[in-house]
């Protein structure tokens, strides 16, 4: 049995979060909140407590509100989400970002023990997906999703992400090509053995013909199936008038195949088919290694994925759930606490608090009044409110950003990648050597001319060259992944190495999400007790924040006598508690003119001002060191949508006042990046919200910073887990080193090429030599790339 | 000596069979998720009385 030591900071038995001063006690176990405790009860009652034995504290906090999944009752949405549907069986694949361990797998695969409507369930851990078969008569889709949410596994429902299947198929076809190439390579080599060993078939010419014939047949799938991708890419390159790395590869392949078929059909020899199959086998492995993708992360979200699938519409005082696309101008919608406002609209109720931090970067929730024009993308906080839509969702102020031309063109010209820059010269040089040598032999010994020409193309085929890049970048991406930077593809590393400037967003990127509450005075326990009793009466989000804040000061809840509770909307709350008159609210409400200079609510006891609360942003740890390192090499700029309240703190981090830009709207950010790019800067942008989406798209490397990378990120080239921000300097350093490693790898493969070329030019290349030289150079390049990336990242403390 | 050719052809057919099996395995998605089965095998197959009996 494993002993679980209980340290002073009590951890929740269910989710492992730290409990605050007053944990929920149940069956001698501690929980951080009632939500976790109730999940524990559900699991216990269904005889599933093995969940807690497989891993320690495997669960997640429950965040549920009753109406959240109401839209799943809408049959149109159901049809879009279901994989299969009939009268008594429905199948669905749900993406659940919180799946992470054996306990999750076990619990979710035993879902039918929680509800008998579930027929079977299967987890795909690497994709973080759950496949459920259920009986719609016993359990509706909405009930199923709510059941999952009730045990802490809330599915992420999104219609956009359903197109990822094609990625899966392309990686499958690559694996099949590798299998075919490997199969043919092995068998052709086996048949080439007599030649490797110098055995003479002597009189048995017939046997030699059989062997060559079988080899020829085996080489056909290699040439026409496995190599097809290289032919396509080379032709595309030539059409766009530049020589990519695939052009010399295709030249090599054609020379190998042409020469071998010629020799075999004329009965001269056995050709180089083993080298051909081996070449493609290695090349495809390299491609597979580089194509490591994070298929469970989404890098291409547009604005649609931020909005809910459906909203509640009020028509003739009945509430129905309608799809977002079906909303029309003039519709009245109901937005509840924490829901997004999906379209530009007008507030119909007296007042609403809206948090725009995700859209504009403003860190404070703002208050809007009846009749105000509300932009889409804000998050409702506190009470629900009704809105009248004035513009369709697809034409709102926010979504205009996506109509910008930055979103329409592909980001980068392949010509600018290191490997293609080199291959341009490489191909030219090889062709010149081949032609000159062929011309020389034409004069000396015309029979050898074609032989030498093809030999040069065969030997110079940049197999090792083509391996250096995928193996270096593939390894770099794996190391990034271990350190929680997930890149969209390997080309991003290439671009990261070339950047000259870093742009940061503030809210959510440099600061932690949510703000911390501070109090102007040290509260005594009795004061905290009274204030706690008052705020417990109000559902206003500020009251709830204060309530959480006060938990630190009170050991236990004492019963208070509360009379004459009043809540004045938009001003404050008051009550008489244990005979004391308490007021909490704006400065005027409390009876003071804001002398403390605090912006949060003030509070008074018996008419005497006691203190005020303030909200401030919490900056992430480790930023000072990071910025000191970065400022030595890069230009640093802050681009924030927020007001300049944090200017003093930020001017310590950034080199100069001029590099701080506040109050930037989403489009401003995009244009700012564009302007700098025109002046020749290569820009890496780090941001988190929708307001950064344009700038992330436009910059050379756009990295989305997220606390939960599997959940909510704007379109980007990479996703960085927030805790890994201090490693940013090492990440960029590694990217720069990777370029040096690639060039060294090229050098290594060139030296092999020189040896091979000297044989080829002098007309002495034998099939055996080619068969040895090619894999040897490839393997040494692969080993070199892997080892040097490992070494570099160890030095940079990334391993 | 033609016997060797016959043997080679037989071995090739056999190997092609394995290649076909691999194709089938990839196409039916058996390589899509390599992580979950490795954990699933460690779970105890405890049968419980609570488990509802489902009739199809």
Q: Can you put this structure into words, describing what you see?
A:
Chain A is an alpha+beta fold. Chain A folds into six domains: 1-62, no CATH class; 70-157, 2-Layer Sandwich (Alpha-Beta Plaits); 167-294 and 413-472 and 737-795, no CATH class; 308-341 and 344-390, Calcium-transporting ATPase, cytoplasmic transduction domain A (Distorted Sandwich), CATH 2.70.150.10; 487-511 and 621-729, HAD superfamily/HAD-like (Rossmann fold), CATH 3.40.50; 514-619, Calcium-transporting ATPase, cytoplasmic domain N. Chain A has a seven-stranded mixed beta sheet with strand order 16-28-27-26-17-24-25, sandwiched between helices. Chain A has a six-stranded antiparallel beta sheet with strand order 8-7-9-15-10-13, with no helix packed on it. In chain A, strands 18-23-22-21-20-19 form a six-stranded antiparallel beta sheet. Chain A starts with 23 loop residues before the first strand and ends with a helix. Mean pLDDT of chain B is 80; it is low at 49-56. Chain B is an all-alpha fold and 56 residues long. Chains A and B meet through helix 4, strand 5, helix 6 and helix 7 of A and helix 1 and helix 2 of B.
Topology:
The complex is a heterodimer of chains A (799) and B (56).
Chain A: E1 24-26, E2 29-31, H1 34-45, H2 51-54, H3 75-81, E3 82-85, E4 90-95, H4 102-109, E5 118-124, E6 129-134, H5 141-150, H6 165-196, H7 205-226, H8 228-239, H9 246-266, H10 273-290, E7 310-315, E8 318-323, E9 332-335, E10 345-347, E11 351-355, H11 357-360, E12 366-369, E13 373-374, E14 379-381, E15 385-389, H12 418-444, H13 446-460, H14 463-482, E16 485-487, H15 491-497, E17 501-504, E18 511-519, H16 525-535, H17 541-550, E19 562-568, E20 572-577, E21 580-585, H18 587-590, E22 602-605, E23 608-619, H19 623-633, E24 635-639, H20 647-653, E25 660-661, H21 666-678, E26 683-687, H22 693-698, E27 701-706, E28 718-721, H23 728-761, H24 767-795
Parallel strand pairs in A: 17-24, 17-26, 24-25, 26-27, 27-28
Antiparallel strand pairs in A: 1-2, 3-4, 4-6, 5-6, 7-8, 7-9, 9-15, 10-13, 10-15, 11-12, 11-14, 16-28, 18-23, 19-20, 20-21, 21-22, 22-23
Helix pairs in contact in A: 6-7, 6-10, 7-9, 7-10, 8-9, 9-10, 9-13, 10-14, 10-24, 12-13, 13-23, 14-23, 14-24, 15-23, 16-17, 23-24
Chain B: H1 2-27, H2 36-40
